[in-house]
Amino acid sequence: MPCFSGMSQEDTDAFRQGGVDAYGNSPERMKSDGTTPCRCCLKLIEAGSVRLVLAYLPFGELQRDAETGPIFLCGNDCEAVVSS
Prior knowledge:
Number of helices: 1
Order of helices and strands: HEEE
Shape: globular
Region (Disordered): 1-35
Pfam family, one: DUF1203
Oligomer: single chain
Strand order of the largest sheet: 1-2-3
């Protein structure tokens, strides 16, 4: 059975507190349209609420098949999904 887990609470909080993305840019703050999932809590970000958009490299360094891609995070606090 597949197991899904979100981004760690620590990494998510770092982006919310001004950390930079994989390209050295601050996350963009935008109003959510309700169609994008948060990479931390894995829920859709409620329409009208603030979301963060940033480039994310999930591995510590570049790898052959690993790509940096755009992700979305709730702009306000949410609870990270912890795999079991």
